[in-house]
Fold these 2 entries.
Entry 1:
Amino acid sequence: MVIAAKMREFGERSSWIRKMFEAGAILKAQYGAENVFDFSLGNPDLPPPPKFAEVLREVAGQTGPGRHGYMANSGYPPVREKVAARISGEQGMAITGDSVLMTCGAAGGLNVIMKSILDPGDEVIIIAPFFVEYHFYVDNHGGAAKVVASADDFSLDLNAIKAAINVRTKAIIINSPNNPTGQIYSAAELAALGELLVAAGREHGKTIFMVADEPYRKIVYDGYEVPGVFPAYRNSIVVSSWSKDLSLPGERIGYIAVHPDCEERDALLGAMTLANRILGFVNAPALMQRVVGELQDVSVDCSIYARRREIFCGILEEAGYDFLPPKGAFYLFPKSPLADDVEFVALLQEEKILAVPGRGFGMPGYFRLAFCVEDDVIARSAPGFVKAMAAAKAKC
Ligand SMILES: Cc1ncc(COP(=O)(O)O)c(C=O)c1O
């Protein structure tokens, strides 16, 4: 074997999405892509807003020295200022550009954070169900992910988090709006988590970071708002991107913002700037930085996702599935009618419906459906959901 044992193991662990992709490719070849209902991938299908193309053309046409050169590893200062102004509104606390670092997507940002704060053996709490890559990002930098299940309604289980904290705990990653549940943590929950981290930090004589991963912040429904984490806790770090709200995941553009009163803020920002460079990113893409700087108040048309959510919830309700309507993001995470979520996902596949088993997100007994597909695909999948439910009942 030429590849590292750990990468073999990682390949196995991340295999659920790959398995769905492979199963989907076979079904699509057999029945035609239009007859397969693929809800497996969280790849936004909406085009970026029209303003994106306008700004991109304008920015691409600008000439001048250094336009395509290396820059400060933290990004262009004017862009960081513009991003900081928007974050100040979202987080309910004024921050300046020097608290912001431009990154290669939220994924790049999370790796920069972990590289900057983790010593070997440090633990990072992640909440199940989780974005599967968190495990890898923590491991990349010598840490160990410690999984804590969320409460039944996918809110934070503060008692379980408290029980999981120990002297090795360095951070907790929270994700709101959540992939895969669509849950949004309330201001009260965040404040309670902040209090818990203050007490735990005091008890263990250390700083424990709250890392808020927020790429779905602008994709919300029914008037829900995403409370900021900065007012809840001083040692908090926000990481996000324009992958979902501007539909730009392939452009790899995101950012980190550090609480203005974070302990050793300057040292932390310095470490993150260095991490951005030495992890191989060097800096976030120059052209995209200049583009997103002009698009702080722009996002995709969320009413399209809202409409799809309505259609999908109606179909699942009608077919008798047990689920909580998502408050944000573009996923549904229903309970599997069979105890074995993999077995149920196989029943869905018989109806040419592709979903991802909950165990891929650390929560067996559920399955995830991504609704970044055309309304028509969702609508046409309805009979399949009814049949899969009937088949599951027949097995019980
Ligand atoms: C919860 C969550 N965090 C981070 C990411 C990574 O985002 P990006 O493409 O900006 O790196 C994703 C992507 O799907 C995600 O769902």
Entry 2:
Amino acid sequence: MSLRIFIPGDAGAVAVGADEVAAAFATVARERGVVLDIIRNGSRGLYWLEPMVEVETPAGRIAYGPTAPGDAPSLLDAVLGSGQHRLRQGRAEDIPWLKRQTRLTFARCGIADPRSLADYQRQGGGKGLERALLLGPPATIETVVQSGLRGRGGAGFPTGIKWRTVAQTSAPRKYVVCNADEGDSGTFADRMIMEGDPFVLIEGMAIAAFAVGATKGYIYIRSEYPHAVAAMNAACAAARRGGLLGRGIGGSSHDFDIEVRVGAGAYVCGEETSLLESLEGRRGVVRAKPPLPAHHGLFGKPTVINNVLSFASVPIILEQGAAFYWGFGAGKSRGTMPIQLAGNVKYGGLFETAFGITLGELVDDIGGGTFTGRSVRAVQVGGPLGAYFPRALFDTPFDYESFAARDGLIGHGGLVLFDDTVNMARQARFAMEFCAIESCGKCTPCRIGARRGVETIDRIIGDDNRAAHLDVLQDLCHTMKYGSLCALGGFTPYPVMSALTHFPEDFGAAPKRLQAAE
Ligand SMILES: Cc1cc2nc3c(=O)[nH]c(=O)nc-3n(C[C@H](O)[C@H](O)[C@H](O)COP(=O)(O)O)c2cc1C
Ligand code: SF4
């Protein structure tokens, strides 16, 4: 019997030396004549422990981390002997950070071998598609509607309603497109799924295709994710061999195949219509809506376009039923959200939990505060277009409506922490600068407004007629918010105005004056 150990092949783990650790284990084992089966799994998402090595034992998988190549000899001694080692974390499932989570979308990430369809199926994968094929398209769509699943890419639109719209169109060809552009700051959940459990995404897309009558799918992955591109290409090939893709998926009469496409590298290419332009081979420029992609999408055909996490949440919904998924969460935010903790954070990583946990719990209890040990001053939630929340708003429950009610958004679930050395006027400037650089240029409020925004904030920072320029900035934000064609220009005011509202002292303004200006 060989000894089975798991060393993540996830890009985040590789960035801190997982490949070198795997190579060191292979060398030491060879030298000692130990038969070692090294599985390159996905990450469990506890990034401060990466590279986290797990060893299969009769008592479960025992975790050790963070490891370095030089630890391989002593770790091998430990696992062949008493199991004791200074890096031992105990059974992976019992690590409190993991134990507190509710992993539905990430149920298999870090556990299954991402290269093996057989392992995916051994771990329960594939049952969602089986059930969908039994239910038929209308009942499959109804299950997704009833589950309350909303798009995890940012806008939070009900997934089942989108599918129903596409299903109700009649067209000779329909498409399913997966948005894996994942451009939001502090986010990495899409990447983790693609690298750690790629078959769940394929299964989710196959269910969507069956439900709406699409025969062709595309996964649009950002070019900065070469590991994810390789993992998805390998998984699609394995799925084709295993009957999950290709002719007659899952033994049905429905054909469906997927192609992986690599993005050209622009934040705006994550916006769905811009992504479709890019997929069609053009520059990523936003299309006016209507028509919606559901009616007139890729190559002018009805198209389902969803985020990676939206598709990856569908198999468990089909497998366990709508009521099961609906049972998690709060209000109109149902199910679980894979939240990503990043920036200046002590315990950064992937924390999947039901909606409703407060921002303060996430920052202080789960994240452990800042990495630098200084106090948390601000948290940007929802990517570069998300608002900065001060500690006074840490009682906000993590759900779509509660964040919107406080002029924020949860977006793709990314949290970026800042300590008390942050200058919020600089962050506001950065938001405008980001918008100016990433703007597709189609509409004036964004293309010109963001440039004027940078200049105006520079004048405020430089104390050049500050009071007047603070008024101009607020006026400009109003114009961008209500006059932009898409959310890039339309949401840039969120980080700017939240910085100004909650941290006026960084702009040299008295808090009272700004509140009066609101
Ligand atoms: C500037 C901009 C960037 C976006 N980037 C992404 C992205 O990287 N990934 C994503 O899934 N959605 C992104 N979106 C949202 C998409 O336009 C769209 O709402 C989403 O792909 C729909 O899928 P969902 O309903 O499953 O969330 C972005 C939107 C804007 C305005
Ligand atoms: S808001 Fe910006 S990115 Fe969006 S359409 Fe207008 S110019 Fe393009």
